[in-house]
Design brief:
Largest interface: A-B, 75 and 74 residues
Number of strands of chain A: 9
Number of domains of chain A: 2
Oligomer: homodimer
CATH superfamily of the largest domain in chain A: Nucleoside Triphosphate Pyrophosphohydrolase
Helix content of chain A: 25-40%
CATH class of the largest domain in chain A: Alpha Beta
CATH architecture of the largest domain in chain A: Alpha-Beta Complex
CATH topology of the largest domain in chain A: Nucleoside Triphosphate Pyrophosphohydrolase
Radius of gyration of chain A: 23 Å
Chain lengths: 248, 248
Amino acid sequence: MKREAETNLSTSQQAKLIKDATKLVASYPKVPITVDCVIFGFDGTELKVLLIRSDLEIFKGSWSLLGDFAGDNEELDEAADRVLRTRTGMDGVYLEQVRTFSKPSRHPGGRVLTVAYCSLLNIEHHQLKILDNELHWHSIQSLGDMAFDHKEILDYCHKWLQKRIQEHPLGFNLLPDKFSLRELQNLYEVILDIKLDRRNFRKKFFAMDFLIDTGEYEDDVPHRPGRLYKFNFQKYEKNKKSWVGIDF
Amino acid sequence: MKREAETNLSTSQQAKLIKDATKLVASYPKVPITVDCVIFGFDGTELKVLLIRSDLEIFKGSWSLLGDFAGDNEELDEAADRVLRTRTGMDGVYLEQVRTFSKPSRHPGGRVLTVAYCSLLNIEHHQLKILDNELHWHSIQSLGDMAFDHKEILDYCHKWLQKRIQEHPLGFNLLPDKFSLRELQNLYEVILDIKLDRRNFRKKFFAMDFLIDTGEYEDDVPHRPGRLYKFNFQKYEKNKKSWVGIDF
DNA sequence: GCAAAAGTGTTGTCCTTACACCCATGC
DNA sequence: GCATGGGTGTAAGGACAACACTTTTGC
């Protein structure tokens, strides 16, 4: 069953099969593909998103996600990395694929697919080294219309992020290595756009038992300093839960 | 901010902008795109998946998902529908986009992206009207290697489905209009591949309060007949929960 | 001493789990 | 009458929500 044909064939026969496959692929319709990066940033206070002015004349004045077409033999994950690198100068940012958008009318220049990638990072840990097209952080609260279907993509990714952060410890990458529980709670409140009870929040995280007490304290705060914790990524990786339970 | 340039322009100026955009898009690299349908089926006993023999000589003997390239101006959702229709004769099946796979080496004939779509249906409600390429249902337990990266795609979709069915009432489409709780529980046990406690399962669903007691009973069962219920889709739609709580 | 946030516990409610017996039906 | 699954309740433990006061620090 395992590629019988292939494994029993001579090299030249194989070469022929590959040539056939190549010919077949060459006959497929081809479509321009872009990747769009939805980079959410947290500055300790607010959730923001990184936008540029659209390159396209027709969208002059509109804000746009960071996008570019995918190169001829480029994996999409790499394309997304490249876009982020070349548009912002940021490096080593973890991106996750969210969804592919394919409405034929989404690009005024004809049919273009786009694959949305999403990240969440601490604005203060990542310097924008390139500022072309007025690249900057926008508050998530005050977004107007955007180029293409980018508002729809952004909204989709925002919801995706809100769900994601409840199920995965994304948030700890946004904080300093050592952080106070106020910082942690604030992060969740901002991203989820809700208020949480302080005592219950603490209980919750202590019960999860993924926080390491460093024994150190904040300084530079104009009030009583809080204890500083680290997130125990190793323990988390080991204990990852797989089952959640039917609930809808 | 809202497309200033556009809204203030004459029709001919707009036409020019569209032409420019079209020219730009024409300069993008283009990539062949396929859609692959991962159709899970439930027959009351087992979880199965719909496969065909690969069209490609190089994968002769290997099983493959239902796929085809996307047409030139075809939205991907429609392409997935079309693939399913033309490969199986099934109509009106609800498909959800799961993920795009882009490894450059995934197709022996060169770079081809594929977008995976997933569905879950009751095998007995959907007749296969076309059986080309040995189309048939395969038990999910006994899958060997597959063509392309289709095993990887299938595994990804299987996990996606297991998560999805816990958070959305997908399962009710698999059952007859009126169903017994045994049928419902069996469905979850098979799809999630776990055993559930019968009393707790009942309590759970009664507590959710989305089941309507029809007052009717099974017949044709070789044991005491169970009550038949319907799912209250309207009530579910109204009460959909949005918040689940931090948990990882 | 005042402002601001840290730190801390209890209670009630609800959900989850584990578990065992009698009942109705077909054969 | 036997096999098969239907139908039911309870008790214990765990999670969650609501809620207020004292402490520490900077200013």
